[in-house]
Amino acid sequence: MKRRQLLATATAAAGSLAVGTAAAESWPGPRDRIQLVVPFNPGGSADRMARSIAQFLPEELGGTPVSVVNRPGASGATGAAWFTRLRDDGSNFLVMQAIPFLANAILQLNAPIKWEDFQVLNVQWVDYAIVAVPKDSPYRSLRDLVEAIRARPGTVSTAVMRGSGAYIQHMILLDKLGLPRDAIRYVTYDGGGPVRTAVAGGHVDMTIVAAQGSRGISDRIRALAVVDDTPAPEWEAPMVNDALREHFGFTMPLVSNYTVSLIAHRTFGEKHPDRLARFLEAYRRMLDRPDYREFAEKGGFDATWRGPERSAEMVNAAFETLRAYEAGGRS
Fold this sequence. Notes:
Elements: H1 2-26, E1 34-38, H2 45-56, E2 66-70, H3 77-84, E3 92-99, H4 101-107, E4 118-127, E5 129-134, H5 142-151, E6 157-160, H6 165-177, E7 185-188, H7 192-200, E8 206-210, E9 221-227, H8 240-248, E10 258-265, H9 266-271, H10 273-288, H11 290-299, H12 307-326
Parallel strand pairs: 1-2, 1-3, 6-7, 6-8
Antiparallel strand pairs: 3-10, 4-10, 5-8, 5-9
Helix pairs in contact: 2-11
């Protein structure tokens, strides 16, 4: 019996070694380490997704370690610019919301980077936004909140990441109301985690923030509206344009969806197409694993494979919409 157990253990170990060796041989890139750059503080949507990749991807790359480094500042612009100066040989990738944060680092914050510097490998997670207030807020509805902003310009405070789609969404709302853009008092943070902490703790009156990433604080906030064109049953709140149409007679363009993406240097695939192909194979295998999908579901984020082509279509179209608004093309 002991001999059978020993043989079984040895066979299993040999099988595991063979799988690991095969995976390692299939990854022709740097094997000392792969680094995922998150240009925000820990705790936000991009950070949580990056840490999940760092936990599960090494097994698909033959044990190549994957680490996360946080480089916050200027709503993602600082870290995104830093990433472009790192090696483009497959040892560094960027995890952030291509829309809106990477786009607005270029369009609003004048970061020393270009849209063409990056290749979005996969939009793994698309998160819509909610208008949220602290649980004990006197604002019980979107109508209450908007009327307070109208009645007392400059007194209602909001938590934002400057340059985010949510930040622009505030400005669009104020434009539609015919109010100056300083009619809301902005309190800025670097990362979705600190934004959520601020509204959940009652440090600000409101925020517009990614919805799925906010499920962990749902007992400490109240959603007044879903900033999407599809109902969200998990939040007891109307779609924002339904509420605005009913109470104020207008709707507004929605620009605050968050495309949490895995991003490479544009030059990585140009210089090392074989490495890019093998990396994408490993990453897709990870996304398909039941243990990863279960982990993602428990963590409140998606494990969706869209691939480079579909992802590029999504983010490029959204980038052009944001660029049109920045140029004055309000609708």
